[in-house]
Amino acid sequence: MTTATPLILQELDEPAARRRGIRLILLRDDLTHPELPGNKWRKLKYNLLEARAQGHDTLLTFGGLFLIIWPPWPPLVGSMGFALSGWCAAKKAVL
After folding, report:
1. pLDDT digits over 22-37, tens only?
2. pTM summary value
3. 36 and which of 27, 41, 49, 62 could share a cystine (Cβ 3.0–4.6 Å)?
């Protein structure tokens, strides 16, 4: 895992903005990491690096079952050598 996250910028060609001399540039966090959508990778990578540096081998995640954070966790943390335990709605989820 690298600590450098590429910033993917995309210019939006919006006629109304262009007429007013305004350039619209979007930060495409949805394209930053192949398995972790949106800004999740940017927000979590430092915690994952620190957990690894401290020698932890298992991560815990908490939240609602249908939150967008659930699906990416197993492949991401598994590829980094972590075991994962997820807790959802007061029950342990099998991930």
Report:
1. 999 998 888 877 766 6
2. 0.56
3. 41
For 49, phi and psi rounded to 5 degrees? -60, -40
**Cα separation, 77 vs 40, whole angstroms:** 13
Task: Give the span between the Cα atoms of 80 and 29, in whole angstroms.
Answer: 21
Taking alpha carbons only, the member of 44, 9, 49 closest to residue 29 is: 9
Distance between CA 83 and CA 48 in Å, rounded?
12
pLDDT digits (tens, 9 = 90+) for 37-92: 667 777 777 888 899 999 999 888 777 666 655 666 777 777 778 888 777 665 55
CA gap 22, 32 in Å, rounded: 25
Burial of 51 (0-12, 13-18, 19+ CB in 10 A): middle
8 A C-beta contact, residue 3 and residue 50: no
